[in-house]
C-alpha cells in the first residue's frame, strides 16, 4: 500500500521539489501550507510521515508539534522537522517535543528521502 | 589608607632627593630602622608623622596619600586577581611598589585593563544584538531556504537520470529564480552590514551639527530667551548682527556643553548654524510669530504677506514653534533645483536621508515646475506614515531681466491630523493619498516608473 506523506511547508519551490522527490520515491503527498491546516488534516486521518517546517503561517511548527503530541491521533505520527532554524535551542525544543528526525535546510535530497522511507517503513512494520 | 603606596612613595621621593634613610629619619625625628619598616610597608603611617615626612620630602600629604593612587592600587589589585592571568604569577603584593616607583606603568596597566573590560562589554552588546536582531534572523532564514531550494534542484538535475525535458526546464527555471532571489537577499545583507559598521557617533563635523540640531528638535529656547525684548530685525544683515550681539554667549555655551563637538571644525560649523538659526529668530520673534501663524491658519503665503518675511524664513520658524496642544508640528526640507538638500528638519515619521537622492514624486520636486505657488500633496510613505506636504519654490539669487531664474523649494511636512488644524487640511478627506517613496535605495515600490536605483533592503520584505 502506498505510504502517505503530509508535507507542511509554505515555500512554493520547496513544495514543488519535495513533491517531485517524494512522488518518485513512491509516496502519495498531501500539502498543508499553514500550522492550523496541519492539525485539522490530522482529524481526517494521520499520514504515515509528517514533514513539518518550523516557520509556518498561522502557527509555528513547534506549536503544531506540541498540539499534535497531546492528541491521541497525532501522538504516534513520525515527524521530520525540516527547518532553516538549526540552532541548538531549536534542536533541543524539537527533541523535547518528540520530533523523530530534525533536518536543517539546506538538506540533501537523498538523506531526506531515505529518512522518510525509514520512518514510513517503521510505521508499516 | 593603603600603606603600601605611601611606603613606596616615601622611598622613591627620598631617593630622588638624594637622601639616605638615616638623613630622612633624623629630619623627622624617628629611627632609621623605623623608617625602613615604613618604607617597606611593614608599619602603617598617618597623622602627624605622615605630615612630618611629607614636609621633609617637600610634598603635600595628599601627594603621598592620594586618592588617585588608592584607586589605581585597587585597579591593579583587580588585574592581579583576574583568574585569566592566574598563571602569570603576578606579584600582587608589589602593586604599591609599582605605583610608587613607576606610576606611569601602573596607570598604563590599569588603563589597558579598563579598556579591555569596556571592549568585552561592547562585544557582549554586539553579540547580543546579532543574536536577537530580527532583520538578521529573518534574512538568514530566507537565505537558507533559498539555498535549500537551489541545492535540492541542483541535486535533482545532477542525480536523476530519467528526467524529461519539460521537467528539466522547470527545474532550471527554479534554479535561476532562486539564485536571483538569493543574490538579492545577500546583497541586502551586505548593505545592512555596511550600515551597521558605520559608527553611531558622527564622523564629520556636518553630521555632528545635524545630530545636535535633531536632538534639540530644531528649537533653542535659550537663544529665543537671549533675543527676547529686541525689536524684530528688519533685514537679514541686521538680524545676523543682533544674533551675534545678543545670543553669541548663549551659543558659545550651548556648543561648549554639547558632547559631540570634539573638533574645532565641528565647533565652528555649529556656531555658524546656530547663528543662522538665531538670525531667523531675531527677524521673527517667537511670540509674535506664533500668534501671526495661528491667526492665518498656518498659511505660509498669508503669513509671509502679513509679516513681510520670506517664505523660507516662515517655514523655518514654523518648525521652531513651541509644542502645545492643538498646535501643529512641522517637518521641513529645502532643496535646490538639482535636488540637493539645503536644510532638513525631521519630525517623527518624516526623516529623509540627507545624503540620498529624494523621491521625485514629492511635491518638493514638482513645485519647481510651478514656482511661487504653494502645492499641497497628501502622501503615503512606504513606512505607512501619511503626511501632507506643502511645497513652494521661491526665486533666489540676483533679480533682473537678464538674470537667470533659480529656485529653491521649501517644503513643510505635517501629519494628516496636524494638517486638519491648518488651512492645508481643507478637502483632504476626499483625496486619496499618493504613494511615494523616500529614496530609491530604501523604497520597496518595485513597479515605480521613476526608480533610478535598485532597492537595498526592500526585497527582504518582498522576498
UniProtKB/TrEMBL annotation, chain A:
Pfam families: Response_reg. Gene3D superfamilies: 3.40.50.2300. The modification 4-aspartylphosphate is found at residue 53. Keywords: Phosphoprotein. Residues 4-120 form the Response regulatory domain. InterPro entries: Bact_response_regulator (IPR050595), CheY-like_superfamily (IPR011006), Sig_transdc_resp-reg_receiver (IPR001789). It comes from the Bacteria. PANTHER family: RESPONSE REGULATORY DOMAIN-CONTAINING PROTEIN (PTHR44591:SF3), STRESS RESPONSE REGULATOR PROTEIN 1 (PTHR44591). This is Response regulator. The lineage of its organism: Bacteria, Pseudomonadati, Pseudomonadota, Alphaproteobacteria, Rhodobacterales.
TrEMBL record, chain B:
Keywords: DNA-binding, Transcription, Transcription regulation. Pfam families: HTH_3 (PF01381), ScfRs (PF09856). Residues 10-64 form the HTH cro/C1-type domain. It comes from the Bacteria. The keyword Transcription regulation applies. Coiled coil: none annotated. PANTHER family: HTH-TYPE TRANSCRIPTIONAL REGULATOR (PTHR46797), HTH-TYPE TRANSCRIPTIONAL REGULATOR SUTR (PTHR46797:SF23). This is Helix-turn-helix transcriptional regulator.
Amino acid at each position: 500500500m502506498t505510504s502517505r506523506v503530509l508535507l507542511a511547508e509554505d515555500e512554493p519551490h520547496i513544495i514543488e521539489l519535495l513533491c517531485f522527490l517524494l512522488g518518485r520515491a513512491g509516496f502519495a503527498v498531501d500539502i498543508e501550507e499553514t500550522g492550523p491546516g496541519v492539525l485539522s488534516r490530522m482529524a481526517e486521518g494521520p499520514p504515515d510521515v509528517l514533514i513539518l517546517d518550523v516557520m509556518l503561517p498561522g502557527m509555528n511548527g513547534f506549536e503544531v508539534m506540541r498540539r499534535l503530541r497531546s492528541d491521541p491521533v497525532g501522538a504516534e505520527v513520525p515527524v521530520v522537522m525540516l527547518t532553516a532554524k538549526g540552532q541548538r535551542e531549536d534542536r533541543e525544543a524539537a527533541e523535547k517535543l518528540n520530533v523523530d528526525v530534525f533536518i536543517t535546510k539546506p538538506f540533501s535530497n537523498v538523506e531526506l528521502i531515505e529518512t522518510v522511507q525509514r520512518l514510513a517503513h517503521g510505521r508499516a512494520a | 589608607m593603603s600603606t603600601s603606596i605611601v611606603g613606596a612613595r616615601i622611598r622613591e621621593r627620598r631617593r630622588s632627593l638624594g637622601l639616605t634613610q638615616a638623613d630622612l629619619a633624623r629630619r623627622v625625628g624617628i629611627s632609621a630602622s623605623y623608617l625602613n619598616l615604613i618604607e617597606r610597608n611593614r608599619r602603617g603611617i598617618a597623622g602627624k608623622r605622615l605630615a612630618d615626612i611629607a614636609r621633609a620630602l617637600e610634598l603635600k600629604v595628599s601627594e603621598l596619600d592620594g586618592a588617585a593612587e588608592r584607586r589605581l592600587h585597587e585597579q591593579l589589585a583587580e588585574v592581579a586577581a583576574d583568574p585569566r592571568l592566574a598563571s602569570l604569577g603576578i606579584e600582587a603584593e608589589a602593586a604599591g611598589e609599582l605605583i610608587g616607583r613607576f606610576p606611569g606603568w601602573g596607570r598604563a596597566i590599569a588603563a589597558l585593563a579598563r579598556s579591555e573590560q569596556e571592549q568585552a562589554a561592547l562585544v557582549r552588546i554586539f553579540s547580543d544584538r546579532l543574536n536577537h536582531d530580527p532583520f538578521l534572523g529573518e534574512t538568514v532564514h530566507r537565505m537558507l531556504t533559498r539555498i535549500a531550494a537551489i541545492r535540492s534542484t541542483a541535486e535533482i538535475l545532477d542525480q536523476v537520470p530519467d528526467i524529461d525535458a519539460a521537467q528539466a526546464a522547470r527545474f532550471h527555471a527554479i534554479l535561476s529564480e532562486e539564485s536571483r532571489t538569493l543574490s538579492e537577499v545577500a546583497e541586502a545583507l551586505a548593505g545592512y552590514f555596511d550600515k551597521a559598521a558605520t559608527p553611531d557617533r558622527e564622523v564629520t563635523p556636518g553630521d555632528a551639527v545635524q545630530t545636535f540640531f535633531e536632538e534639540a528638535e530644531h528649537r533653542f529656547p535659550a537663544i529665543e530667551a537671549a533675543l527676547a525684548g529686541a525689536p524684530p530685525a528688519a533685514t537679514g544683515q541686521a538680524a545676523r548682527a543682533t544674533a551675534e550681539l545678543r545670543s553669541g554667549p548663549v551659543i558659545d555655551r550651548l556648543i561648549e556643553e554639547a558632547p559631540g563637538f570634539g573638533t574645532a571644525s565641528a565647533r565652528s560649523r555649529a556656531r555658524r548654524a546656530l547663528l543662522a538659526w538665531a538670525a531667523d529668530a531675531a527677524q521673527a520673534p517667537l511670540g509674535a510669530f506664533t500668534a501671526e501663524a495661528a491667526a492665518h491658519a498656518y498659511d505660509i503665503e498669508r503669513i509671509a504677506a502679513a509679516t513681510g518675511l520670506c517664505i523660507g524664513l516662515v517655514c523655518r520658524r514654523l518648525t521652531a514653534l513651541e509644542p502645545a496642544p492643538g498646535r501643529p508640528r512641522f517637518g521641513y526640507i529645502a532643496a535646490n533645483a538639482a535636488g540637493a538638500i539645503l536644510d532638513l528638519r525631521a519630525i517623527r515619521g518624516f526623516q529623509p536621508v540627507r545624503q540620498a537622492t529624494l523621491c521625485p514624486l514629492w511635491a518638493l520636486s514638482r513645485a519647481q515646475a510651478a514656482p511661487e505657488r504653494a502645492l499641497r500633496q497628501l502622501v503615503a510613505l512606504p513606512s505607512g506614515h501619511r503626511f501632507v506636504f506643502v511645497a513652494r519654490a521661491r526665486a533666489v539669487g540676483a533679480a533682473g531681466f537678464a538674470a537667470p531664474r533659480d529656485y529653491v523649494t521649501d517644503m513643510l511636512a505635517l501629519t494628516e491630523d496636524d494638517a486638519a488644524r491648518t488651512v492645508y487640511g481643507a478637502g483632504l478627506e476626499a483625496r486619496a493619498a499618493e504613494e511615494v517613496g523616500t529614496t530609491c535605495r530604501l523604497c520597496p515600490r518595485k513597479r515605480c516608473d521613476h526608480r533610478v536605483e535598485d532597492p537595498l533592503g526592500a526585497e527582504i520584505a518582498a522576498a
